[in-house]
Write a structure and sequence with these properties.
Distance between the termini: 38 Å
Helix content: 25-40%
Strand order of the largest sheet: 1-2
Number of strands: 4
Structural class: alpha+beta
CATH topology: Nucleotidyltransferase, domain 5
Strand content: 5-15%
Largest sheet: 2 strands, antiparallel
Order of helices and strands: EEHEHEHHH
Amino acid sequence: LPRTLRKHDAIWVIVDRLTKSAHFLPIRLGDSLDKLAELYVLEIVRLHGVPVSIVSDRDPRFTSHFWGSLQGALGTKLHFSTAFHLQTDEQSERTIQTLEDMMRACIMEFKGNWDDHLPLKEFAYNNNFHSSIGMAPYEALYGRRCRSPVCWDIEGLR
């Protein structure tokens, strides 16, 4: 990704396997593990609690002793996808593909500040119907449809 005015050049995609809800966190490729751990606690643990398990690709940051120790201290089991068995991380890969499609237009139009629009991309993703769960991730997570500007005119959703 092109570097933004805030120096973000990557997106950390975190997907809940049950509800398919996703978080798109702007990061810097050079962010330290301390910074990523802080972001993880602020954006994931704060909102959802500590996960029972995490499936991750084999990014060196997430196979490191530090990350393993942090997750061990939290009581979270780590599982890693293998090079020839990517199905273990299939949901994240599909989500990343969807995000890439969403970002193409955003990057072309907004050039230096795609990270300003990332929360709206996350909102759109989490409020879009997913056939695998028969509803939008927001609805799966909160038990109701999200009230959004798009549906404010629909009677019964107010």
